[in-house]
Hints:
The complex is a heterodimer. Chain A is an alpha+beta fold. Chain A contains eight helices and 19 strands. Chain A has helices spanning 42-50, 92-102, 107-121, 136-148, 166-183, 194-200, 218-223, 228-233, and strands at 4-13, 16-26, 31-36, 57-62, 65-66, 77-80, 154-158, 186-191, 203-208, 211-216, 240-247, 252-255, 260-262, 275-280, 292-302, 306-312, 318-324, 333-337, 344-347. In chain A, the strands form four sheets. A six-stranded mixed β-sheet of chain A has the order 6-7-8-3-9-10, sandwiched between helices. In chain A, strand 9 (203-208) and strand 10 (211-216) form a beta hairpin. In chain A, helix 2 (92-102) packs parallel to helix 4 (136-148) and helix 3 crosses helix 4 (136-148). Chain B has twelve helices and two strands, in the order H-E-E-H-H-H-H-H-H-H-H-H-H-H. The longest helix of chain B has 34 residues, at 65-98. The radius of gyration of chain B is 23 Å and the shape is globular. Chain B has helices at 11-39, 56-63, 65-98, 103-115, 118-129, 135-142, 153-181, 185-193, 198-228, 230-236, 248-258, 262-289, and strands spanning 41-43, 50-52. Chain B has one domain (64-292): MetI-like (MetI-like fold). Chain B is mainly α. The interface between A and B is medium-sized, with 25 and 20 residues. The complex binds adenosine-5'-triphosphate and magnesium ion. Residues 42-43, 158 of chain A line the site of magnesium ion.
Amino acid sequence: MATLNLSAVTKSFGASTVLHGIDLNVADGEMIVIVGASGCGKSTLLRIVAGLETPTTGHVAIGGREVTRLEPADRDIAMVFQNYALYPHMTVAQNMAYGLRIRGTPKDEIARRVAETAGLLGIGPLLGRKPRELSGGQRQRVAMGRAIIREPKLFLFDEPLSNLDAKLRVQMRGEIRRLQQRLGVTSLYVTHDQVEAMTLGDRLVVMHQGRAAQVASPMEVWARPADTYVAGFIGSPAMNLLGGTLAEGGAAVQLKAGPLLRFPDGPRAGGDGRPVTVGVRPEHMLRDGEALVTVALDLVEPLGSETVLHGTLASGEVLTARLPGMVPAVGSAMPLAIPAEALHVFDAESGRRLDA
Amino acid sequence: MDRKVIFKGRALPMLLLLPQLAVTLVFFIWPAAMAVWQSLLQQDAFGLSTEFVGLDNFAEVVADPAWRGAAANTAVFASSVAVLALGVALFLAVQADKAIRGQRFYRTMLIWPYAVAPAISAVLWLFLFHPSIGLIGRALNAAGVMWDYQLNGNQAMLLVIIASAWKQVSYNFIFFLAGLQGIPKSVLEAAAIDGARPLRRFWTVVFPLLSPTTFFLLVVNLVYAFFDTFGVIHALTRGGPGKATETLIYKVYVDGVDNLNLGSSAAQSVLLMLFVIALTMVQFRFVERRVHY
Ligand SMILES: Nc1ncnc2c1ncn2[C@@H]1O[C@H](COP(=O)(O)OP(=O)(O)OP(=O)(O)O)[C@@H](O)[C@H]1O
Ligand SMILES: [Mg+2]
C-alpha cells in the first residue's frame, strides 16, 4: 500500500520518443486506469513503473521512495500480464508461491497463504495443475493470485482481460474491482476498452501519442473532455465534432452545418470569427428543438430500446444520433435538433476545451 | 493440422521411398547385420578357418581387462565431452540470447566448428597444444607447467575431450538458442517482478524450461562421444599414451583393423550398438513424458 508519483517521465527508443513527459500522482489505495489507442505508450508507462524499462528522463517514486533506477525485484510490486506469463513448468500452487519462496518466506506460511489466496479466487481445486491444463479464465485467476499473494505495494495490470471472452471479461472486471477495493492496494490498470476504463477506475489517464491528454474521474472525462481527442475517444458511439465559428462576441457559435447556437453557460473567449470545434454526444441529439439540422441518413440501426442513426449534414460533416425508442424510417432525410445545453466547445486549432 | 499428401496407387510412393531405403539398407542395416553375424564367429590367427562360437566372443570381451579399461575411459571421456560441450554452448547461447543484435554473428561463428572435418580440427588442436610447436603447449611449458600430452595420459585425455567437445558446441548452441528464444519474455519478466535475480531466474525458470532440449542434446552428445570421436582421437593421440585415450570405438578399430581379431571387434561394436539403442529408447520415453507445454 503506497502512493505512486511520476514526474516528467519520458521514454525514447532510439530516435523515436514514445512518452513525452508524463506527470501522475496516485493516492494510496487508488485505482488508476490508463486508457488510449494502440501504440500510445500505455504498456511502456506501466513497464517503467514496474522497472522493466528505464525512463529516458524523469523520476518514479513508490511510497515516497525514489525507485527510478531500481530493479523490479526491489520495488515490491506485482504485475498481471496480458498473456498471464505463468511459469509453464510449475503447478498453480508453485506459481503462486514462487515470489514468496524467493523472499525466503517460511514454508508453513507459504502453504497458508497459497490456500488462503486460492480460496479467495476460487481456484483451490486447481492447485496441483500445470498452466497448460487450465482454461483462459482459470489462468487469469492464477495470474491474479500470483500478484495478490505477495501483498505488494502496487498492482500493475496490462490488459489482463483482453484474452477472455466477452462474458467472462465482464465477470472478471467486477471481481478485479472488488478485490482491489477489499485489499486496498494502489493499482495501475492499462486497457484500451473504454467500458473497462469507465467502470474500474477511480481516475482515468487518457493517453494520446505519448502524452496524458486528461487525468480525471471517469464522469469528469465524460462530462468535460479536455480536448477533442478525449471527446472522441470516450463515449460510444463517439461524440459528434462539428466545425463552426464564434459569433455575437463569443456568446454563440455559427455552425458550418447551418444553425446558430447560443451558449447557455456564457460567452467563450476570442472574438467573432474564431474557428471552433463543437462537440455533441449522439445520445444528446433531439428529435425536436430550436437548432435543427437536416441529416441525410446513411444507416439506421434499431437496437430495440433505442435507435442509432448515421448520416451526413449539408456541410458534408457526418453526424451520429442515438434516439430513444423506435424511429420510423421516414425517407432518406430527417431533421434533428442540437441542444445548446449539451455542447462542448473546443479550439479548432489546438483541440483544447474552451470553457465559458 | 492434419494434412496428408495422398498418392494414388502404390508404385509412386514405393519408387520415392526406394533411394532412402536402399541407402539405409546398404550403409546401415547390412553392416549392422554383418557385425552381428561376425560377432558370433571366430577365426584362427591366420584367417584360415572360421567357426561358429555363439556368444563366446561377448563373454571374452566383457571379461577382458583391456575392454573394461576402454569402457572406463569412454565413461570419463563421453561424460566430460557432453558436460563440457553442453555447458559451453549453454553459456554462449545465453549470452547470444541477451545480445539479440549479436545473434547472427554468434550463429555464423559458432556453426563453423561443426563444418570442419574431424582430422582437420584435430590438427588445429595439435597446433595449439603440441608441447614443442603448439602455441598454448609452449606457453604452458614456459609457464612452468609440465605439458606433454604424448607422455601424460591425463593431459592426453584432457586434450581429446576439449577437441571433441569443441566440435559439438556449435550444434548444441543452435538448439539452446532456439530453446531460449522459445521462452516467452513475459515469463522472465514475471520472475523478475516476483523478485528473482538473473542467476536465480536462470536456475528456477530458464533451465527447467530448457530441460527437454538439454536432455535431447545430452543423448546426442553422448552418442557423438561414443561414435563420432574416432577421427579426433586417431589424429591426436592414437589411443595413447599407453591406452590412456583408448575408448570403446577406438578399440573396435584397433582390434578389428590392426589386430585382425574380427570376431571380438564385431562383438564390441554390437555391444556399442545395443548401448545406443538403449539410450535412444530412454530419450523417446523421457521426451514424451517431460514436455512442459
Ligand atoms: N522495446 C521497444 N523498442 C522500440 N520501440 C518500442 C519498444 N517498445 C515499444 N515500442 C514502441 O513504443 C510505442 C508504444 O508502445 P506500447 O507498447 O507502450 O503501446 P501500447 O499503448 O501498450 O499499445 P497496445 O494497446 O497495442 O498494447 C509503439 O510505437 C511501439 O512500437
Ligand atoms: Mg500494450
